Amino acid sequence: MDWGMQNRLSQLFGQDGNCFFLPIDHGYFQGPTRCLEKPAETIRPLLEYCDALFVTRGVLRACIEPAQSKPIILRVSGGTSVVGKDLANEVLTTSIEEVLRLNASAVGVSVFIGSAYEKETLKNLSKIVNVCENYGIPVMAVTAVGKEMEKREARYLALCCRIAAELGARVVKTYWCEKDFDKVINGCPVPVVMAGGPKCETEREVFEFVYDGMQKGARGINLGRNVWQSPDPRGVAAGLNAIVHKGATVSQAQELFEEVKNSKQSVKI
């Protein structure tokens, strides 16, 4: 691995080898998502807890302070919406020149294994890997399932992650599953980070699945709605950071959540 690739990956993963990515890219297919209508205001109190932002170029330019930004993972696939026929029918939306111009530390692209557009999305991944490797820019593959959340089971997720890694993704974002998640991790030769999926009912539910996934070998999280749609997003972010980077238990994360929730001051973790 060359110096540039190693340097960019080190910006995304802490010294412990783990990461907390905060995605705010939902608008590229959902429009003004609840609690993300004004992205700059949403993320401001959360930046101290996350390691990188996953964002589109439009929101990056319009809403993110260049002088105080976290490392950027730039979403480079899209072209569909929730009112369209098929969320899987994505194309590459961003050029390598734009990736370099915006000084992104990595790029992210969705793949839809098992969909009618499987080949096209895997071609998107392969194409962006081919280009980004020339510039030492890591590619994160997002194993998306569109509207079919029932696909979140270990055998399917393991298939998706392995294919993405085989095609050159340096990091894979996938869903946690309750059964055999360790098989998903063990079958993927590159770091796996957990997606949030549907919004959980309580913060403890979030802490529980993240803790379980980390214990089974995940290298971190890429959670958005379960953080910034919470009534107490700073508390959730603090608890997740503690699990990911401090090895905190669910109970310890819950205690930290309550502490941050009841405090107006930033809590050092």
Q: Layout of helices and strands, plus pairs?
A:
Layout: H1 3-12, E1 19-23, H2 27-30, H3 39-43, E2 52-55, H4 57-63, E3 72-75, E4 77-78, E5 91-92, H5 96-101, E6 106-111, H6 118-133, E7 139-143, H7 154-166, E8 171-175, H8 181-186, E9 192-195, H9 203-215, E10 220-222, H10 225-228, H11 233-246, H12 250-261
Helix pairs in contact: 9-11, 9-12, 11-12
Commentary on this structure:
- The chain is of the alpha/beta class and about 270 residues long.
- The protein has a single domain (about 5-200), classed as Alpha-Beta Barrel (TIM Barrel).
- It has helices spanning about 5-10, 25-30, 40-45, 55-65, 95-100, 120-135, 155-165, 180-185, 205-215, 225-230, 235-245, 250-260; strands at about 20-25, 50-55, 70-75, 75-80, 90, 105-110, 140-145, 170-175, 190-195, 220.
- The strands form two sheets. It has an eight-stranded parallel barrel with strand order 1-2-3-6-7-8-9-10, surrounded by six helices.
- The radius of gyration is 17 Å and the shape is globular.
